[in-house]
Amino acid sequence: MLSNKYVRTIMLSNVLLQLGVWVRNFAILLYVTEITHNDPYYVSLISVAEYGPLFLFAIIGGTFADRWRPKRTMIVSDLLSACSVFAVLLVVLSGSWRALLFATLVSAILSQFSQPSAMKLLKQHVPEEQLQSVMAMFQSLTAFFMVIGPVIGTFIYSHYGIEASLAVMGGMFIGSALILVKLPADRMEETGQARSGFLAEMISGLNYVRASRVLKNLGVTFAFAGLAAGLVQPLGVFIIMENLGRDKGFLQWVMMANGAAMLLGGMFIMSKGKTMKPQTMLSLGLLISAAGTVGVGWSHHTALTLVLQTVSGFFYPCIHIGINTLLLRHTETAYMGRVGGIMGPMFMGFMVIGMSVAGYAKGTLSLSAVFTGSGILFLIAVLILLPLLRTKEAGRQALQSRL
Fold it and tell me: Which of 29, 64, 90, 207 is deepest in the core (most CB within 10 A)?
């Protein structure tokens, strides 16, 4: 796979972007909590700046990604992100820390343009039989940075301060842009120049998803999986304190075990899971997540909880790899950006809904009941996938050219 220049280049670019984003996330989080004396209002604004653009700009960025040249879009997005970071660095040096939220917001917005363009290039230049392994490789990279990203971000901020952290972040974005320059020039058929208006193309993307049985099923699966994940994500610390009777600091070890298992799971799928159908892989990941979530909610033994988190983490990449592989196989190149812009908010939107009601649910019900409810939601997502499991792998789905 790494012999493919597009995979190799985008992979290396992604390494630098992941480094920049993790340094940004932890440096800004630690700096804001320090400067505001743990003010929950400003701390929450960081999450708003990170996730808000997904809802506001995902479909917009995806539509423009389908219209513009993918290589050029990715390079310009990285360079603009770097410029915004260095501009914010100058403001921070003058004593205004609130501009840090602006840096997070701008880079998050621009990622909604560059990420669909990367998926579009992979769709165009990676053989279909290798797509699942390529997705496993990128999922393994994400899991790897989930383990070491917080350590790197915290180390740079603790030893060198917010200014150096911002400089590192800007440098990573510039490095990514320079690496992407090595990609072959966009062909004329890759420009995605639109013959209709922007709004018409956005509506066409919505109609494209609505006309596809596979994409509709995946969208509903996204919603239930996101709701299930969001419902328990804020409650991990209560599992540590209430069920296990340990200090909340023990949570970091549970998270590291989960992240390391995700890395191993992604690597295993990359090497051994090439023959597994993506819909089967997705269903397996959801089933294991359902069982693991329920088990963690009822477990009062540290060793059992760690085992359940490790097993769940190992199979969790099946969810994202299965979904991304199905999206790539069943979406025409011209619609990659818009389909991603529609599907992404489905998961994140319902995850935020789950997170917003998690505290209320815990206060009303027991902790084990909330985790059981999350497991049931994962099972519902599996039931929605049953029609896809009964069908043979069809490869790329051709839809009406009129959409």
Answer: 64
